[in-house]
Amino acid sequence: MTYLSPLGYLLGIEGAALLRGVREGSADQAFVEARIAEIRALLDTPALAHAEGVTASPGTISAADVYQAWAPHYDAPGNQMIDIEEPVLRRILDGLPVGTALDAACGTGRHTTYLHELGHHVIGFDSSPEMLAQARKRLPDVDFHEADLHRLPLPDNAVDTVVCALALTHVPELAPVLAEFARVLRPGGNLVISDAHLLVSYLRPTLARRPGPDGRPCLLAEYHRPLSAYLAAALPLGFQVRHCEEPRRPHHSLDPDTAPDPLPTHVSWDLLHWCPEASAAALDDSPIVVIWHFQLDGTRKG
Ligand SMILES: C[S@@+](CC[C@H](N)C(=O)[O-])C[C@H]1O[C@@H](n2cnc3c(N)ncnc32)[C@H](O)[C@@H]1O
Q1: Of 40, 98, 114, 189, whose CA is between 20 and 30 Å from 296?
Q2: How many structural domains are present in the chain?
Q3: What's the CA angle centered on 59, arms 57 and 64, to 5 degrees?
Q4: CATH of the domain at 194
Q5: 98 in a structural domain
Q6: Is the pTM of this model over 0.90?
Q7: Considering only CA atoms, which of 285, 84, 63, 85 is closest in space to residue 194?
């Protein structure tokens, strides 16, 4: 069970700002005293003291339910993670030989579209019918199929490239999914992965959805992992690392024009505007995604 409290979240951001400032040498006396004064002010804000907290357990809403609701808005502008991930991932795709490409957990077809434009023969798989419906609208001539990452409906050695973007956070174990990617890739094939960075889970944890399918607050289970976990899963399968990048949030990632009023009465990212200096110190220039380019050993398969 996780108890999410708006005040608790803001105090956590203040704490992260202090710890990071000390670690990086940017926390001078004025900054530290400002944080302490702001913590006092937050504690004394009646609206925050009485704001509603919620108790929820991770796994009480499924990814299927989340994406069913999100599908119509997923491609709306303003998703910072996508804005930061996309150019890095595209740069890797630009350097790959054109062939047959699988966009695994393709969602609304964001990277499928780019692979198609590069001239690949593309196939898109996703477990969400609602996300696939958006992808089919975008690319009516492309093959999109409902499938789970653990059981890809493709023969062995079927594709030259696998892209799996921002989806592994939903799978509890990396090894079986990467084994599926290795199975469908031809020897020497390329695997390009992006995933939410481990730090995201500390600085912007998943918010409860209210009400969930059962009418109570619920939390999506997400799996954020250290970089060693990707290596531990990929290297025994014959993947070799070609590139790894951890792009960061820009400075001033918090829109300074967003006014703090009204105070959300529940845990929300809008709360960050109640402590913009601390939020910037905690969040700015912190890694938001990890992007991997692996290549399958050219001699490992028969
Ligand atoms: C954040 S979206 C990313 C979509 C797309 N790759 C992109 O980067 O825009 C995550 C996608 O993973 C899909 N997904 C989650 N778990 C899955 C699974 N086990 N098998 C297949 N797709 C899955 C979801 O349905 C969703 O479309």
Answers
A1: 114
A2: 1
A3: 140
A4: 3.40.50.150
A5: yes
A6: yes
A7: 85
